[in-house]
Amino acid sequence: MAVDVVMPKMGESITEGTILEWKKKVGDTVKRDETLLEISTDKVDSEVPSPESGIILEILFKINETVEVGTIIAKIGKPGEKSESPNVEFENKNENLQEISDLNHTSKIPEKNTTEIKRFYSPLVKSIAKKNNIQMDELESISGSGKNNRVNKSDILAYINDKSKIEKPKLVTIPTHLPSEQFLLESESKPVNFQGRVEPMGRMRSKIANHMVNSVRTSPHVYSTSEVDVTNLVVLREKYKRKFKSKYGLNLTYTPMIIDVVIRALNDFPLLNTSIKEQNIIYHGNINIGIAVALPDNNLIVPVIKESEEKSFIGLARSTADFANRAKENKLLPDEVFGSTFTITNPGIFGSLFGMGIINQPNVGILSTGAIHKRPVVKESEYGDVIVIRNMMYLTLGYDHRLIDGAYGTRFLSCLVKLIENFDKSRLF
After folding, report:
1. One of 28, 162, 405, 424 is an active-site residue; which one?
2. For 220-270, what is each residue's pLDDT tens digit?
3. Of 233, 302, 378, 401, which residue is the least packed, with the fewest Cβ within 10 Å?
4. In a domain? residue 178
């Protein structure tokens, strides 16, 4: 009897997955626990192992389709065994139904040329065509690799790419006093002009874009900024970084220091560790800190340190380093990027003095840390005001004004400033 392969539930918050690649095709042999396909859940890519050894009898969904958790996506059986359902490769479930409808309609109302059935095009293909000014007659001329010569996403993108290579170049005037060979060499060395270029967003960037738009639409953002003297942190790090590295095998960074004080401040300001659902305030039992990590491909991901209030400083440091490394290697698990209750982002790592981060829904707050710079600062002393050189940093809190007012947000920032400026070295070990 054939075994059903279902879209797995990769975490408590995961409800669907997008198929990125099938490692096997219909008719191929697969072993139990061998990678069968790759899926994407939100921002994380994962491999799905085969639940059983056998022959791939049927693949029900194609690449780039998004499928709900628990849905049957393939069937595995024994050699010679037939699948109970017809072996149809779908571009999309809804598209397939529409295609059948279109074919039935065609049989009743013949086209001008009854020997030719107009191809079905998915909404995604039509969208890409529209963005690139490809008319229907041109779309009809594209050779498709799908069933019944159907044009899929990769076909139209390949066509657009090939088309751009043979597009008529802009007319240029070649000076008569320059040899043509010299002109060509000079023109090749000029930077590429991207003006007019159109390309679809990548999968991850598209999801980030939707997430950001949804956040701005959902939460009225308010920002408060405070300046903090981090000289104490700088001195502590410089003094103990070798000892920390020797004892734990980790680099001592400012990030776990900031996380440590944020956790303590959230204990005193629990409203910033909540979510809003309809007209209700949800107070979370744990503090789950999301840490924004910039990826090599210019995208962003937010792994989450779950139950961070229960971790020691070294535990926070290990989690931070581990998440940062695995995020850049695309090795995070799907459930590790869900469930944050408060988010920290660090635009200062790229030199920015301060940033105004967009709230990571369903959080109600996000803290942005700026770059550390030495500046002259006026300090009070027993001899009066004096000007000293200190390491200073800006903290910017973004918060949901549906729940958090300016007074509450500002008091939270003031609490953070005191905790940072009086950071206890004993917390490091």
Report:
1. 405
2. 999 999 999 999 999 999 999 999 999 999 999 999 999 999 999 999 999
3. 378
4. no
Q: Tell me, yes or no, whether 113 lies in a domain.
A: no
To 5 degrees, how large is the angle CA 51–CA 56–CA 60? 90
Of 28, 297, 401, 424, the catalytic one is 401
| First CA to last CA distance, the chain | 58
Domain assignment present for residue 35? The answer is yes
This prediction's pTM: 0.65
User: Considering its fold, how many domains does the chain have in total?
Assistant: 2
Residue that is last in its domain, among 21, 53, 77: 77
Position 383 pLDDT exceeds 80: yes
Residue 277 belongs to a domain: yes
pLDDT digits (tens, 9 = 90+) for 97-145: 344 344 344 434 344 343 344 566 765 677 678 778 888 878 888 877 6
401 catalytic per annotation:
yes
Residue recorded with tokens 């509450």: 408
- 177 in active site: no
CATH number reported for the structural domain that contains residue 61 in this entry:
2.40.50.100
